[in-house]
Amino acid sequence: MHALYTVRELREIEADAARRLPPGALMQRAGQAGANVALDLLPMSTKNARVLVLAGPGNNGGDALECAAHLAHAGAQVTVMYFDGGASPERTRALERARASPAVFTDLTRDEIAASQWQLAIDGLFGIGLTRPVTGPFAALIDAVNALACPILALDVPSGLDADGGCVVGPGGCAVRATHTLTFIGDKPGLHTADGRDHAGSVTVATLEIDAAHFPPAAMRLGDVALFAGAARQRRQNTHKGSFGNVAVLGGAPGMSGAPILAGRAALHAGAGRVYLYFAGPAPATDPGQPELMCRAAHGADFGAAVTVAGPGLGGSDEAAHLLEAALASPQPLVADADALNLLAARLALAARLRGRKAATILTPHPLEAARLLGVGAGAIGRDRIDSARRLAAGLHAIVVLKGSGTVIAAPDGAIVINPTGNPALATAGTGDVLAGLCGALLAQGWPAWEAALGAVWLHGMAADVLVADGVGPIGLTAGELIPAIRTALNRLVAQRARQPR
Question: Model confidence at 1, in pLDDT bands (50, 70, 90)?
């Protein structure tokens, strides 16, 4: 499984490993690993390949200096922009090796950087310890590098990015937009969520040959099929619609009937045996585009015989609150989305009912909904998505799916998974309704809540990735287009699972 570690954890791992190694060994290994990746990014012949190396004032700069020395000895034309600082003995020795190599040390203006035909730029300005925004001359340098047409390799993390939370360190900061990141010792959550997905590019990990015994059990992981595939089972021949559960979608206040229809269609195409749509407003006789859906008035609905997906287009009225209260009282699993989350944030009695539920509950907030639930500004969610999701899960006794780039899934016990699938095509109205319906369908088919949340988010994102790869989006992709792609992705998952040896 792909573990993710915080900066604090990585510093402890590094310190523990370094005590058992010769001084500077880890920095030398990092430099060699960086050079190996750089050579893969350069043309077949490194002779005359022009490489720009940015070596900052800390140990990340030492990694870059070691990398520069290796590349220069391999025949590349290496130009080092070196920034002095408080030097550790390891960094001093790295500087000596780089100066003894054929690498050229020089200062370049922004115009000179832009005018040179670089084949590769290597970012070793700032590592995982950055706490202040990058401004002034360093910001101008980063802007110049970001404008280059060549690949950009970041060592450990793109300079200016928070390795824990994934935000550009700010306010007013900037960060390198790398095409590739070689991260050291262990992977960092910030490379896979928030701004990290725009700045890290393709991420690989170099453990620097640190023994696995130095690594503690990971509380965070990068999402992977292996985390939920065990819940995907091939269907037996001797089954019927009752074998695959019922989903009840509660929503559809006046003027918002489309949201529950999208959620219901997603639930139906993701395998639920029967799907009921309970409308808080006037209920249509049928969904002409999906007549298999059963449309009914929400008043008097029985939520005890189905997994409930509450919230799509539900509204914030007193009647909506009464309906949500009835759904929360159900002994069946529940998915709370959209207006259900806003009602939970606004009405303490509903939140108390949620915390007291015995059945599985999944919450699917976007950042603004999460902010309302936590009683903070939306900016606070963006600054630390992982902590926000963890606090919500613990405080509301539910699995939380904090949507966004690198969706964060949190369990009440503190476990975190960051989902790697999805793209900007999902930034359109209705995709959250589709995700909620998908969660409900997996729960109805007997998936455990944790696996249902992980699987739904992964499949939802994978459907968008496949559609974009096929030329459908990202611009203009609609939520409804995701639904058949989700069905295809789910069936492929089940088929692959069936082919694996038991």
Answer: low
